[in-house]
Amino acid sequence: MVKAKDIMSTKVTTVHEYANVMEVIKLLVERNVTGLPVVDDSGRLLGMVTEKDILMLLLYDPKVKGKTATDLMTTEIIHFDEDENLMKIFETLVQSNFRRVPILSEGRLVGIVSRRDIIKFLSEKARKAQTNDTDE
Question: 19-36 burial string, b = 16+ CB within 10 Å, else e?
Fold first, then answer.
């Protein structure tokens, strides 16, 4: 059984809960990501801030001065333990609008599994299977 920890990205760009909106936007742009986990000082996951959250803020409250990641983040997020079966994560990403899900160990963020991570894993698995077929 393939687990989340087998394919997750562990170099996750995060944002601290008190980061201001401009810092959040800068990270999204510089890291070329569409969402960031929001964490506290101990690395506990508090929420996610996405491009959509930024756009919603700018649409409904263009006065961003003083706003922080905490003001922007979505707190009701689906996350998984690092030992979760990859199939369950795969099904969640297919059935929802999420592009990624945080992976936790003892409540702390340890990685992210994105749609791209799963596609990359499936591609590598197919390539290995094809190589094994041609070796026979």
Answer: bbbeebbebbeeeebebb
Question: Whole domain around residue 118: which residue ranges?
Answer: 4-135
Comparing CA positions, the residue from 63, 73, 89 lying closest to residue 9 is 89
The tokens for 108 are: 């702390």
pTM: 0.84
- CATH number of the domain where residue 11 is located: 3.10.580.10
Rounded CA separation 19/9 (Å): 23
pLDDT band at 113 (very low <50, low <70, confident <90, very high): very high
Total domain count for the chain? 1
SS3 state of residue 37:
strand
